């Protein structure tokens, strides 16, 4: 079975520093696990490379779920 | 024809403002600012005018070059925060130095020093000047919204100058680009009091606003693109460049560029901890720091990359050389 968008996004988020051991669910707040705005932009840029999509530079997902939905929304276009 | 940098100089205001001091009136902390930006303190003008700082930096550059102000054929100043809307900051410098040459400003925000260097190169290359003073003078403290914790903690004031003379190998590469996006980083001009103007009041006059995410992304993407293009066009591998002097907007941007390009961090200047982002003065301030620390040896390759409002990005590759005879 192909890896879900959720799994792929979580893997990218975990590549950000210090998130290896953190369990991420859809409801996880990005700021609460230490992902600040610049780390979020880094993750957004990594998702663009991974999925071949273009994300609004000012997009500001607050949770893992919002992040996954942002990517999924663009993948369905 | 080309040019050689034959002297450097810089000047900072005396007053240092620490992160803790900012935390006293902003909802922020030393830890927050340090980990997100790499900045610990910045210099902020209290009694110094920008004219004074620019003059001081210029005298030091002339002194280190062994050039007299009367020998200058051109003064180009990069600034967006001058003491005067007119005349140019460069004119104030000319007056204070007693120079009698054309003097004007270049406005290209944080990329301004590389733009100004390229302008001066044009005058030297066309034989219109043999010796030029190129400086950046920035009093960023005057364009801050001091209630905006996301921007006012980032900037500081400084002036820095170089003396360039015709002749030499530099630049081995130079490219200026603009990817127009005014709203990403904007300081609206003087509001004025014209009774006829109906456009006033749309934004606070003369206070900086920044779309941080867009700017971060632009910076990392375009600086990487510039350096890759420089490598490809010159055939000089990035591994052979001795010093990378990138605009010092944020330590995290520099780190991201280092990581993406696999650069040796010891060859990449990081000098914003004690001065913050001093806009276009970052690059010449860093050059002066390297020169005065004896870290610039003859024959070394120095890459400069400016980026900022515009959105502008500018890169150049210099060969550090002795003064042309």
From TrEMBL, chain A:
Keywords for the protein's UniProt record, in alphabetical order: Fatty acid biosynthesis, Fatty acid metabolism, Lipid biosynthesis, Lipid metabolism, Phosphopantetheine, Phosphoprotein
GO BP field: lipid A biosynthetic process
Keyword set includes Lipid biosynthesis: yes
Question: Which is an annotated GO molecular function term of this record?
Answer: acyl carrier activity
Q: Where is the Carrier domain?
A: 3-77
PANTHER family linked: ACYL CARRIER PROTEIN, CARRIER DOMAIN-CONTAINING PROTEIN
What's this protein's name? Acyl carrier protein
- Organism of derivation: Parafannyhessea umbonata
Automatic annotation (TrEMBL), chain B:
Which GO molecular-function terms appear in the entry? 3-oxoacyl-[acyl-carrier-protein] synthase activity; beta-ketoacyl-acyl-carrier-protein synthase III activity
Subcellular location(s): the record lists: Cytoplasm
Positions of the Beta-ketoacyl-[acyl-carrier-protein] synthase III C-terminal domain: 233-320
Q: What class of enzyme is it?
A: transferase
Gene3D superfamilies in the record: 3.40.47.10
**Pathway it acts in?**
Lipid metabolism; fatty acid biosynthesis
Q: State the protein's purpose.
A: Catalyzes the condensation reaction of fatty acid synthesis by the addition to an acyl acceptor of two carbons from malonyl-ACP. Catalyzes the first condensation reaction which initiates fatty acid synthesis and may therefore play a role in governing the total rate of fatty acid production. Possesses both acetoacetyl-ACP synthase and acetyl transacylase activities. Its substrate specificity determines the biosynthesis of branched-chain and/or straight-chain of fatty acids.
Ranges for the region named ACP-binding are: 248-252
The protein's matches in InterPro entries, at most eight in alphabetical order, are given as: ACP_syn_III_C (IPR013747), ACP_syn_III_N (IPR013751), FabH (IPR004655), Thiolase-like (IPR016039)
Please give the catalytic activity noted in the UniProt record: malonyl-[ACP] + acetyl-CoA + H(+) = 3-oxobutanoyl-[ACP] + CO2 + CoA
* UniProt family annotation: Belongs to the thiolase-like superfamily. FabH family.
Q: Which residues form the active site?
A: 110, 247, 277
Subunit field text: Homodimer.
Protein's name in the database: Beta-ketoacyl-[acyl-carrier-protein] synthase III
What keywords are assigned to this protein? Acyltransferase, Cytoplasm, Fatty acid biosynthesis, Fatty acid metabolism, Lipid biosynthesis, Lipid metabolism, Multifunctional enzyme, Transferase
């Amino acid at each position: 079975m192909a890896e879900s968008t959720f799994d792929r996004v979580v893997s990218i988020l975990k590549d950000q520093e210090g998130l290896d051991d953190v369990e991420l669910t859809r409801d996880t707040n990005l700021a609460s696990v230490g992902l600040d705005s610049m780390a979020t932009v880094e993750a957004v840029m990594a998702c663009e490379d991974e999925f071949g999509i273009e994300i609004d530079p000012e997009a500001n997902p607050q949770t893992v779920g919002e992040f996954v939905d942002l990517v999924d929304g663009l993948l369905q276009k | 024809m080309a040019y050689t940098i034959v002297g450097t100089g810089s000047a900072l205001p005396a007053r240092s403002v620490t992160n803790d001091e900012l935390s006293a009136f902003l909802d922020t902390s030393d830890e927050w600012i340090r980990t997100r930006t790499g900045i610990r303190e910045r210099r902020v003008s209290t009694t110094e005018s920008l004219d004074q700082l620019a003059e001081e930096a210029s005298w030091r550059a002339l002194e280190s070059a062994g050039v007299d102000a009367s020998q200058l054929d051109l003064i180009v100043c990069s600034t967006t925060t001058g003491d005067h809307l007119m005349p140019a900051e460069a004119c104030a410098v000319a007056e204070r130095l007693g120079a009698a040459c054309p003097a004007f400003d270049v406005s290209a925000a944080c990329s301004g020093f590389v733009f100004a260097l390229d302008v001066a190169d044009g005058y030297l290359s066309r034989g219109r000047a043999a010796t030029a003073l190129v400086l950046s003078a920035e009093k960023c403290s005057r364009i801050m919204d001091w209630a905006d914790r996301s921007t006012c903690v980032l900037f500081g004031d400084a002036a820095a100058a170089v003396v360039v003379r015709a002749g030499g190998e530099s630049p081995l590469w130079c490219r200026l680009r603009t990817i127009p996006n005014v709203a990403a980083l904007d300081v609206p001009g003087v509001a004025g009091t014209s009774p006829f103007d109906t456009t006033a009041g749309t934004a606070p006059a003369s206070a900086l606003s920044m779309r941080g995410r867009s700017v971060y992304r632009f910076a990392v993407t375009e600086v990487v693109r510039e350096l890759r293009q420089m490598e490809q066009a010159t055939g000089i591998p990035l591994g052979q460049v001795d010093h990378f002097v990138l605009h010092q907007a944020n330590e995290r941007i520099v780190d991201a560029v280092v990581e993406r390009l696999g650069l040796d961090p010891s060859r990449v200047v990081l000098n914003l901890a004690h001065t913050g982002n001093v806009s276009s003065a970052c690059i010449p301030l860093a050059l002066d720091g390297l020169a005065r620390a004896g870290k610039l040896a003859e024959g070394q390759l120095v890459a400069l990359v400016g980026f900022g409002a515009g959105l502008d990005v500018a890169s150049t590759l210099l060969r550090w050389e002795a003064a042309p005879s």
